[in-house]
Specification:
Elements: H1 12-15, H2 44-56, E1 66-74, E2 78-82, E3 89-92, E4 110-117, E5 125-128, H3 129-147, E6 150-159, E7 162-166, E8 170-174, E9 193-202, E10 207-211, H4 213-230, E11 236-244, E12 248-252, E13 257-261, E14 282-291, E15 296-300, H5 312-315, E16 325-329, E17 334-337, H6 349-378
Parallel strand pairs: 3-5, 13-15
Antiparallel strand pairs: 1-2, 1-4, 2-3, 4-5, 6-7, 6-9, 7-8, 9-10, 11-12, 11-14, 12-13, 14-15, 16-17
């Protein structure tokens, strides 16, 4: 029979073999079940109930599961964590260090840990915070893939075929998925944070494929819809220079690109578009022509200011003395420039030279023809 004196009867924790006065973190709380000796002093049914109470007093957790634990003790090399199991777990303190090498937890903090094994040779539960964090990240990535959510990652390095990106775990961003246009210098993106979408996940193989291009195309589609609804010839818009070629520049108007031809950049002579604009410059342009069927847009920049040749006779009347700067020399003439805005569009040194050579060739041909005619007449 069990002792009916409440003052002398042991509590359930003592009967179950769990020390009540032992401080947390001083050693593993081993699995000590009630021994058969207890059966001599208590009813068998009560003893069986006590065994059942002991077994159910611990959390029902299994290996490979991420659980929440409470930090009991932090030492120079280890962190003791209680996950409500029969014994405590020990994790290397290196898994709790920040970028500056400082410990990020203290006794009483709640942390997520992965239960790797329920018991090691020393009687402790084998836990890992680092693996728990990675599993949580994988779960978040799979959810982002399913829900088509945006993920943000930092470019680590350039690798074969694309970029390695850190999104909590290492992921792959193919070069063809970096932008809507080909990117020639992928190294320039190193250490940059990019907004991307997960397009492929294989947790078993640890494979994650990202795409920034898909996200940009979706965002551009929304911008394009708004831009096309308001686009009209003669309208002044603000755009961004996206690409420069020998014949002009492509301007992003918001989801749709327009061509700014080199002849529509300035009233003066332009040798190359890069002399005036650079990639990512924000400029004002006017819509010269828009074809809704092909969605082609022709833009102008020089049209934002008056044509300097429209009032050149008023600004420079015949007979007036003016100061100018010599900008080119040819065999037959020299060309002064009074201001950068009144030089005739398309005029160039090479054009002047070709014109001079053409006139010289025509003159020599006329002279030879006249001589030949005179010789025939004399004969």
């Amino acid at each position: 029979m069990a002792n009916e004196d409440s003052g002398n009867s042991p509590d359930l924790a003592t009967q179950a073999g769990r020390p009540t006065g032992q401080a947390h973190g001083t050693g593993p709380v081993r699995s000590i079940k009630p021994t058969a000796g207890y059966a001599e002093d208590m009813d068998p049914a009560e003893f069986a109930a006590l065994l059942d109470l002991y077994d159910t007093s611990f959390r029902n957790i299994s290996e490979g599961e991420v659980v929440k634990g409470t930090v009991l003790k932090v030492t120079a090399s280890e962190v003791v964590v209680d996950v409500g199991y029969k014994s405590e777990g020990i994790i290397q303190v290196s898994e709790f260090l920040d970028e500056n090498g400082q410990v990020t937890v203290q006794p009483g903090d709640t942390v997520d840990v992965l239960l790797e094994r329920t018991d090691d040779r020393d009687g402790y539960v084998v836990l890992s915070r680092e693996k728990a964090e990675k599993m949580k990240i994988w779960d978040e990535i799979e959810k982002a893939y399913t829900d088509r959510k945006v993920v943000i990652g930092r470019v680590i390095e350039r690798i074969k075929g694309g970029l390695a990106v850190d999104i909590g775990v290492r992921a792959f961003l193919p070069g063809s998925q970096v932008d809507v246009r080909p990117v020639r210098n992928l190294d320039a993106l190193k250490n940059q944070e990019l907004r991307m979408r997960v397009i492929k996940v294989n947790k078993k193989r640890g494979n994650i494929v990202l795409s920034r291009k898909v996200l940009l195309e979706e965002e551009n589609a929304e911008k394009k819809k708004f831009t096309l609804a308001t686009l009209a010839e003669g309208k002044v818009l603000r755009g961004v220079v996206k690409n420069i070629t020998d014949y002009g520049a492509f301007i992003d108007l918001g989801g749709i690109d327009g061509l700014l031809h080199i002849t529509d950049m300035s009233w003066g002579r332009v040798g190359h578009p890069s002399e005036i604009f650079k990639v990512n410059d924000e400029i004002d342009v006017v819509v010269l022509k828009y074809d809704p069927a092909t969605e082609r847009v022709s833009l102008g920049h020089k049209q934002l200011v008056p044509d300097p040749w429209s009032n050149v006779t008023d600004r420079y009347p015949i007979g007036a003395r003016m100061s100018g700067k010599v900008v080119s020399l040819t065999a037959t003439r020299w060309t002064p420039r009074f201001s950068a805005s009144i030089r005739r569009p398309g005029a160039s040194r090479s054009a002047s030279s070709r014109s001079s050579r053409t006139r010289g060739t025509t003159s020599r041909r006329s002279t030879r023809s006249a001589r030949a005619s005179s010789a025939r007449c004399a004969t």
